[in-house]
Structure formats: structure tokens, C-alpha cells
Amino acid sequence: MNRYLGIDLGGTSIKYGVVQEGKIIFKGEIATEVDKGTGQVIEKFVEIIESTKEVYGIKAVGMGVPGIVDISQKIVYECKNLFWENLQLGIILEEKTAVPVILDNDANLSTLAEEEYGFLKGVANGILLTLGTGVGGGVIINGQLYRGNNGLGFEVGHMRIASEGLLCNCGREDCFETYTSATGLIKHYNITYNQNISEAKEIFDKFSVGEKFAKETIEWYCDHFSDGIVNLINLFDPEIIVLAGGVSKAFDIFEKPLNKAIDKKLFTKILDHAEILPSKLGNDSGILGSAMLAKQYFSRK
């Protein structure tokens, strides 16, 4: 049976796994360490590919990148959170490892995985949002993943949702991800309350024991998150919105305040809004989607 390596690249960590017949038989995770430069990130990819090739005999590699990708040319045109431009990543990795490497936008791949194995299966119109270092997303319209004219379709993290003047990595102010990513959540907590935490999980842990600062932060978060979701509901009228990525692990904590804020802001109260659900696949959606991409690529060869 053929085995494929799926790599889910994030600004904070690189998650990877070997997939066989739709099942992850091995997975790992390492820090991205963007501050150490692009070269060391590439070497991490090489080590992951070489080690899994040797042990599991992988046939091809699929990789989800949080940016704009040319699938056919295997080029990352732009990846804001990793400060990449026109990086021939797939070509470089193939030359170094002699294994076929195919790239796509990470949120697109998570969406495909959720459509195949998760809550978007059989859904004609649905959305997936990835809540990590940034915010990405994929949208299914009439049963098809929407990519847009240049593969730029649904860069939802850079939809403007506020007017508070917070600068985004893309150069604009008040983007969706500036408020609703793990990065934005942490930054707001630290700056507003003069704290020094490094993980969003710490805020949710503090909320669970009743800390006032954490409670106010979650209220702030849900207020802004609901603005973005209401925009998406008004634009796409989806049946389901699936939340993936690290922040989605705390969905049970912010589910009620988020839905309450959404209900207040919808322009029509007659119809039920889209159901908001945490990913059925958890943090594995990126790995599974990337491996699906590799399998599709290898099958065409």
C-alpha cells in the first residue's frame, strides 16, 4: 500500500504525518523557528522527508503553506507570516530529497480533508476557518472548493473587520486575523493587562479558573470574531462553519459567547444561522489534506 507524507506548515510549528489509506500511521511536530531564517526551515523539511522516506517508504509529499501558492510551478509566491516571496520551495525540496513534492494553500487542504473525512462531508455550501498564528480559510460552494482566478480565493484572514488601527503583517490595518488569530489574542491580553504569556491556551486556562482579565479578553475576542463570521454568513449563507487550528481546541469555552454575539449582529433573525463546529479532525486536518494532495499528484504520474 502506498504511503504519503503530509506536512502542515504554520508560523509557529510544522506538523507532519505519514498517511496510508486515509489513516495517519505516524505523526510528529517541531517548532518552525521563523526567526532563524528560511534556510533552516527548508532543512527541517528535508530532515522530515528523508527520515520518513527511509522508515516508511513514502511515495510523495504534500505540503500546506499559509500563503499564495502556484500548485503547478511548486512556488510559494507570498507567505506573509514567514516573510517569503517567490520561493521555489517544491523544486528545492525535490532536488534535495528526490521525492515528489506538491504544494497548496494550507486552509484549502484542511477544507478538502474536512470535506472528505469531517463535518463538511456531503455539505454543498460550507466554510472552514483555521485559527493559528494567522487566520486562513476555505469555502465550499455548490460542492466545489473555491480557489478564485489566481488561487487567491478566500484569503479571509485579510478581511477588514474593525477600525481600531491594529497593523497586520500584510500591511493593512484591522484585518480579521489581527483580532482572531492566536497571535492577536495573546497580543491583546499582554498589552491590555501588562502580562507576558506566550500561548493562547494560557488565557483559556485562566478563564476556566475565573480570572477577570481572561474573561474580558474572551469577550473582546468573541465580539471581533462574530463580526467576521457574520460577514461570511451574509456573503455565503453556509450550512456549516468549521473551526480548525490551535484556538479551536478551546471552542467549548467560547462557543456560547460567540453564538450569542453572532445572533445579535445578524441582519435577519428569521432564519437559523450556520452551525459553528470545531473540526472533527482536530489538528490532523492539515496533515490529512496534504497527504490527499500528494496521493492525487502521485496517482496522475
Q: Would you kindly provide a written description of the structure presented here, covering whatever features stand out?
A:
With 301 residues, this protein is α/β, with parallel strands linked by helices. The chain folds into 2 domains: 4-109 and 283-300, 2-Layer Sandwich (Nucleotidyltransferase, domain 5), CATH 3.30.420; 123-279, ATPase, nucleotide binding domain (Nucleotidyltransferase, domain 5). 41% of the residues lie in helices and 23% in strands. A 5-stranded mixed beta sheet has the order 3-2-1-4-8. A 5-stranded mixed beta sheet has the order 11-10-9-12-13, with helices on both faces. Helix 3 (106-117) packs across helix 9 (285-300) and helix 7 packs across helix 8. The two termini are 17 Å apart. The mean pLDDT is 93.
Secondary structure layout:
Layout: E1 4-9, E2 13-20, E3 23-31, H1 38-56, E4 60-65, E5 68-70, E6 75-79, E7 84-87, H2 89-97, E8 101-105, H3 106-117, E9 126-131, E10 135-141, E11 144-145, H4 176-180, H5 182-193, H6 200-208, H7 212-236, E12 240-244, H8 251-265, E13 275-278, H9 285-300
Parallel strand pairs: 1-4, 4-8, 9-12, 12-13
Antiparallel strand pairs: 1-2, 2-3, 5-6, 6-7, 9-10, 10-11
Q: What is the structural class?
A: alpha/beta
* Spatial strand order of the main sheet: 3-2-1-4-8
- Kindly estimate the percentage of residues that lie in beta strands according to DSSP: 15-25%
Element pattern in H and E: EEEHEEEEHEHEEEHHHHEHEH
Gyration radius from CA atoms, angstroms: 19 Å
Q: How many E strands?
A: 13
Largest sheet: 5 strands, mixed
